[in-house]
Specification:
The protein is built from six helices and ten strands. It is α+β, with helices and mostly antiparallel strands. Strands 4, 6, 7, 8, 9 and 10 form a six-stranded mixed beta sheet that branches. A two-stranded antiparallel sheet has the order 1-2.
Length: 203
């Protein structure tokens, strides 16, 4: 518990900006994202698709979804237990997060990075396989409704410019997501074992 409390306490680090001045940016992660699975699942059921038994059923709903691919704002990890599809609103939310994150990087005169998506739409079959190796996985997963995605807060794709440390990038990602959560656009769970933000679109 002590480590958990330290993690959410905001320490201050001085970050040098590109113009030679100093700007104070919190280093550690002060955002308490505690939107649990039942809460996220209720929204996923409301705004998403019906769960698919396996990937062979994907063709039936593909026209309702958006293919998620590497773009200017985010990168997609190799997906082993999910497929890269989201509802249009969830896809728009993901883009907003990536775009907002990069805007904050520019504001603090940091280099260019992309967030990394680690999980997207899961079928029931995907979930059953994942539950064998991931204790956070649940049978009634919001991922099954194509409204939900995971973004790692430990890794980022470096593109160019001055490099930042992981703690600084994590804070700015948290700030970006918290802005959207406060605006009622998403629900967020901070996952420690999987080192990701588990995010469900609400609009």
């Amino acid at each position: 518990m002590r480590i958990f409390r330290i993690l959410f306490c905001s320490l201050i680090v001085v970050v040098l900006t590109g113009c030679g001045t100093q700007k104070v940016v919190p280093e550690n992660f002060p955002f308490e994202f505690k939107d649990n699975n039942p809460h996220q699942l209720a929204n996923a059921k409301k705004y998403g698709i019906e769960p698919l038994e396996d990937r062979s059923q994907l063709k039936k709903v593909r026209r309702k979804l958006r293919l998620i691919e590497d773009c200017d704002y985010y990168a997609i990890d190799p997906l082993t237990h999910s497929v890269p599809y989201l509802t249009p609103k969830a896809a728009k939310l993901l883009k907003k997060i990536g775009k907002g994150f990069q805007k904050k990087l520019r504001k603090h005169k940091m280099g260019e990075y992309k967030i990394i998506v680690t999980s997207v739409l899961r079928t029931k079959d995907d979930v059953q396989k994942l539950m064998k190796t991931n204790k956070n996985a649940v049978a009634n997963s919001a991922h099954c409704h194509a409204t939900t995605f995971d973004i790692t807060y430990r890794r980022y794709k470096y593109m160019s410019g001055p490099k930042a440390n992981t703690a600084q990038l994590k804070y700015l990602l948290g700030e970006t997501v918290n802005d959207l959560r406060s605006d009622g656009k998403c629900l967020v769970r901070y996952e420690t074992n999987q080192t990701c933000l588990h995010i469900t679109s609400t609009k």
